[in-house]
Amino acid sequence: MSSHTSPSSRSITIRRAVARDAKRLTRLVRGSGAYEGKYAAAVAGYRVGPDYIEAHRAFVAVGADEHGGRVLGFYSLLLAPPELDLLFVADEAQGRGIGLLLVAHMQSEARAAGLDRVKVVSHPPAQDFYHRVGAVRTGTALANPPAVPWDRPEFEFRIPSE
Fold first, then answer.
1. Which UniProt keywords apply (predicted)?
2. For the chain, which has fewer Cβ within 10 Å, the N-terminal or C-terminal residue?
3. The whole model's pTM is what?
4. Minimal CA–CA distance to 143: which of 135, 133, 134, 153?
């Protein structure tokens, strides 16, 4: 699936990420309000490089109209093992259904790839979002200092066949 729009999120298109999106995606990760305070160190040096985009199924949500084609969010799906590696929505674009659009697109991509489930190791402040969009809590990824000094909830999206 190359693009997806929804009446509830007018003028949002989802397309495959390309190498030239790398700097924008890196800024989106590093600027995320969900990673302020004690979580800031986790993304301080984080980089979404062109090599990552080329190697993974990464997709961006792009706003048309008033956003002038700006990247509003993105996700990355790993196939082996099946995992939603990254999912970010720009702070100013949250609450508009973009995260739900990205999740629906990810599920469609997972289904097309023959997957029946996709794991998510969630950032603690994002766990309510994953619950709301249909992920099921499956456990806890324990802290791994110094890289990740806090426990993280694990979820799973079950991908029904059509």
1. Acyltransferase, Transferase
2. C
3. 0.90
4. 153
